[in-house]
Amino acid sequence: MGRAATEAKLTEERALVLSRHGVSRETVDRLDGFVALLRQWQAKINLVSPATVPELWTRHLEDGLQLGELARGPSRWVDLGSGAGFPGLVLAILLAGREGAHVDLVESNDKKAAFLRAAARELALPVSVHAERIEDCGTILGQAEAVSARALASLPDLFALVAPHLAPGAVCWFPKGRSHEGEIADASAHWRFDMVKHASHIEDGSVVLEIRNLTALAGA
């Protein structure tokens, strides 16, 4: 897609996403700043698939906006495998200005972690970036009210990563695609959990899973 077509697509999708999500002028300004920074850095390092750049708003940002609407209560988040900041930086943009709000972004790739730090600094976001493996972030996970992860791992693998560290009452929010039923069945063989399945308008058949009270089954 040429430059003019890319700009037109971005403008069209920005208007569509903002029409579906009622956010403040300050939030819109930060979202625009985030998109501008991501495109600037994308020219140097591969933050997202180049083919998805014209669809940044619907393919990437909107997941975070939807998650923020579903989970309005938590102020302290940990986002695992943050990559280019989806959904963690978007959540931080939504939380900017809330007293006590903080988002910990865990991203082991040093170049992506550098981008996350630059974006958090430029946009004045309540963010800490941890360029570490998730397995080494147990203390951080233990401080979270809510944990998010997007396109990181299967549900059983996510449970294995977070379960040893979750604080009582912490909630996991995992966007999942059309194959989520199989992942839920696999996880149910080894884990006990309470789940609310929220239909997602990002893609037909996709969901956001709200997970509470996660415990391993005996002998699993």
Write a structural description:
It is a single chain. With 220 residues, the chain is α/β, with parallel strands linked by helices. It has one domain: Rossmann fold (3-Layer(aba) Sandwich), CATH 3.40.50. It has 8 helices and 7 strands. Strands 3-2-1-4-5-7-6 form a 7-stranded mixed sheet. Helix 3 crosses helix 4 and helix 7 packs across helix 8. The longest helix has 18 residues, at 3-20. The protein is globular and about 60 Å long. The termini are far apart. The model has no long low-confidence stretch (mean pLDDT 94). It is found in: Cytoplasm. Its EC number is 2.1.1.170. S-adenosyl-L-methionine binds at residues 81, 86, 134-135, 150. This is Ribosomal RNA small subunit methyltransferase G.
In the CATH classification, which architecture applies? Answer: 3-Layer(aba) Sandwich
Give the overall average pLDDT. 94
What integer value in Å does the Rg equal? Answer: 17 Å
Q: Domain count, please report it.
A: 1
Based on secondary structure, the structural category is: alpha/beta
Broad CATH class: Alpha Beta
Query: Which overall shape is indicated by the principal axes computed on the Cα atoms?
Result: globular
Q: Give the biggest beta sheet.
A: 7 strands, mixed
Q: Termini distance?
A: 49 Å
Q: Biggest sheet: strands side by side, in what order?
A: 3-2-1-4-5-7-6
Q: What's the number of helices? A: 8
Low-confidence stretches: none
- What percent of residues adopt helix (DSSP H or I)? 40-55%
